[in-house]
Fold these 3 entries.
Entry 1:
Amino acid sequence: MNAVLLTSAYLPPVHYFTKLYAAPHIYMECYDHFVKQTYRNRCVIAGPDGPLTLTLPVEHGDKAARPCTRDIRLSSHGNWPHLHRTALRSAYEGSPYFEYYADDLLPLYDRSWSFLVDFNEALTEVLLGLLDLHPDIRPTSAYADAVALGADDFRETIRPKIPFTDDPAFTPKPYYQIFSARTGFLPNLSMVDLLFNMGPESRLVLRDSVF
C-alpha cells in the first residue's frame, strides 16, 4: 500500500482504520473545506434495530465562506457529550470488551473541546493506543496535493454516501457483533464497534480486511 491522505474523522469506520493499520505513511488533512454529512463529524454504531448515526453539532461561522475543517468549532449548545456517551454505553455495555476500554474513551466526552479536529484527534489517538497501533501520521500544513505526496487520496472517498466496495483494497471481514442475531452483520461501522466486540483480536480483523 502507498502512503494515504485522510481527513479528520469522528470515531472513524473500520475502512478508515485499515488505512491507519496498513499504510506506511498517513497524511492527515485539516485544510480541506468542511463538508456536511461526512465522517468528519459523524460516526455509525450498532443499535439493537440496526445502524445508528451519531452526529457532532458544529458551528459554521461565516455562512458566506467555506471554512476549513481545522476551523470548525464544536457547538456549545445542547448536551451532545452526554447524548453521545449515553448512546455508546447503551449500544455496547453488553459487549465483551466494553468494560475494558470504556474508561479510556468515554472520559474524553467530559472534557471541554473547542475545535472538531482536536476532539477527533484525541479519540483516534485513544483508539490507536488501545489497538497498540503506532502509525506514522503527518499533519499537513496546507491543503495537500496527493500526487506530489505520492499518496492515495481518500479524503472524499471514505464517506457514508460512497460504497466501501468502491475500494478494492478493503473487504470487511465479518466479526462478532452483539446485535447480529437481530440485524445480521453490519459492515464498516465505527472502529468502536469492532474494538468493543473483539478486543485484542481487532487487529486481526483489520489485517484480514486489507487486500
Note: The radius of gyration is 16 Å.
Entry 2:
Amino acid sequence: MSPSLFPCLTIAGLDPSGGAGIIADLKTFAALGCYGQAAVTAVTVQSTVGVRESVAMDGGLVYRQAAAVMDDFMPVAVKTGMLGNAAVVQAVTKLLREYKPEYVVVDPVMLSTSGMPLLNAAAVPVLQKELLPLSTLVTPNLPEAETLLRTAGTDVTGFTETFSGDNKEGNEEEKKEWLHRLSQACGGAAVLLKGGHAEGAPTDYLYYNGSFRAYPGKRIASRNTHGTGCTLSSAIAAHLARGMNLPDAVGAAKTYVSAAIESGAALFSGKGHGSLNHFFEK
C-alpha cells in the first residue's frame, strides 16, 4: 500500500546530528512505510557528544505549523517529543483538542542523555494536566515516570527497584499497582514504562485497559543508542497508523528498535553516542 495512506506527524525538537528528534522520527516513519510530517518545537545545538544549547519555538508558531498540515493532509497518528516549555505544551494541547487525530503517542522528554533539561519544571504539571489525558499512549522512562508520579503527589519509594531489570521474580500485583498509579498520573492514558535506565536486562511494561504486559529485552553492546526513545515512540505511532492494536504496535516497535540498535553498532558515529541504523537490511 502507498505510504501516503499512513500519514504520521511528529511534533518535536530538531537535532542537527540526525540521531534524535524530528529527524529520527521521520527516518522511522519512512522505514516503516508511513508518510512523515513534522512541526518543530525547538532548535537544539547538539552533536553525538551532547546538547550545548536549545531555543524553543513560540507556542503559536508550533500550533500554526501543525495546523497547516492538518488542514491539508490530516495525520492518522501524532507523536510528540521535546516540547520545552508550558506555552508549547498548551499550543499542542489546543491543537489536539481541535483536530482530534486518531492516535496520539506522547514521549514526555525531560532530559537529554547528557543531562540538559529539555522540558522546564514549570511545564511538567501543565503537560500532566492538559496534554497527557489526550494521549493514546505515554512512553516515560524510569526517571520521567518518577517525575510524573511525584508531580501527582505520589511517594516514589521503591518504584525504580520494583522495575529493575533483574527483578524477574518481582510481585506482579505490586508492578500493576505502580503502573496503575502512573496511568492515573498521566490522566488515565495507557503507559509504556521503559526499563532502559534500570539495572540488568531491560524490560518495558505496557499498562493498558487495566492490565499490564511485559516486554523483556536485552542489553545490546553498542554505543550507538542516541535517539532510542524518539525512535520507539515514532515506531509505535507508525504501527498504530498502519492498523495494529496497541500491544502489538508496542511489540513490533520494540523489535524494530532492537534491530536498529544492533545494526547501528558498526556505524560511524562521531565522538559520542551515535545514531541507530533506521534503514537496516531486513
Note: The CA atoms of residues 30 and 182 lie 32 Å apart.
Entry 3:
Amino acid sequence: MSLNSTPSAERLHIGFFGMRNAGKSSLVNAVTNQELSVVSSVKGTTTDPVQKAMELLPLGPILIIDTPGFDDEGSLGEMRVKRAKQILNRSDIAVLVVDASAGMSPGDRELLSIIKEKELPYIVVYNKADLLEAPSKKGAKSNPEEKIQAAKEAAAACGESDVIFVSASGKQGIEELKERLAALAASAGTEDRYIVRDLVSPGELVILVIPIDKSAPKGRLILPQQQVIRELLDAGCSVLTVRDTEFRQTLGSLVKDPALVITDSQVFKKIDAETPSYIPLTSFSILMARYKGFLKEAIAGVSSIRYLEDGDKVLISEGCTHHRQCEDIGTVKIPKWIKEFTGRDISVETSSGRDFPEDISQYKLIIHCGACMLNEKEVDFRRKCSGDQCVPFTNYGTSIAYMNGILERSLEIIPEAEKLLK
C-alpha cells in the first residue's frame, strides 16, 4: 500500500446489487468511467465481487464493489449469492440496480427488504431507461420524458418514489446519480474519529514500540503503525520509534519522560515491566478497538477468558490474510497464552479475511484482531453477530493485557475507559 493513499478500510464502501442482466456492471463502468467490470448480454457474467478503490468526484476516496446477480442459479450460483450478501455487511451505501424495461421483480423486492433490514442508506436505480415503453395516443410520438414519467408512476405504485432512472449504455443520468450518491454519503458520514490524536497534546513525546521479528512484514510497517505515526505528527507530537529490544535503554537515555508509550501487544508484558507506572502505556490493538467502535464490547467480553472450561471453543478471527510464521500471534501465541492462563484444554479455531462464520453460537468467545483492514461497517456486523448469538467479543490487545494483569493500566489514557470498566 502506498503511504500517501487512503487505505480501503478508510474509504466509503458503495456496493452495487441487483438481478442478473440488470446492467450492474455497465452502470459501475459508467459511474467510474472505467472498464472495471466485464460486460456481456449473457446472464451471470459477474461471478465474483469486483472492487476498485478510487477517487470519485464529488464523493472523494471510495471503494466501488460490483456484485454477482442475486438470482444466480445452481450450487455455484448459491455461493455467489452468498458472497453478494456478505458485501452488504460491509457496504456503507447500497445501490439497487433494477432493469427498468422489466420493472421491479420479486427478487429485487427481497433484496430491497434485506437492505432496509440492515438499515443501509440506499438508492434504487432503474437502468436501461432508454428501453422503456410508454403508452401514447395512436399516431403520437412517445418521448423519453413521457417514458420515464410513466415508469416513475409505476415505481411509486410499488412504494418506491425516491428512485432515479439512468441509461448506462447512453451515459444518461450518470451525473445525477453521482450527486445523489454524494448526498447519501454525506448523510452516512460520521464525526471525525481518531486513533490517538485526541489523547495527546502538541509538543509531547510519544514512544512507539515495534518488534521486528519473523512475523514483522519485510521492509514496511503495518497499517496501524503508519496511521498512529501520521496522527501524532498531525497533532504536533514528537514520535520516537524503537524495537522492544532497545526500549529499556532508549527510555533511560531520555531527558524528558514520554507522555505515552504505545506498544505492539505481543510484547505487552515486557514493556509493562520496563515502563515506570507513572508513564501511560497502551497498545496499538486497544487503540484500534476504540477507533473501530468496539472497545466497550472488547472490555465487557474479555473476562470470559477466565471462565473457559475444558473443550470450550474459542474463535480467533483476523480481518486480513497473510503468510503464517512459526510464531504467528493469532494461531500460535494467543492460543498458547490462553491455555497457560486458564490451565484448560481449550479448542481454538481461526478465521481470516472475509471468512467470518455466520453461525458462531458454538463458540464461548471471539478474539478479534485490531480490524485495521476492515471498514467500520463490517466490524459492526461482526460485533452485532456476536451480540445476537450471545457470544462474548474481544480483541487481541485487550485479551493480552487482561491475561497479563495490565488491562486497567492500558486503558488509563482513554477518557471513557473508567466508565467502560464498571
Note: The longest helix spans residues 74-88.
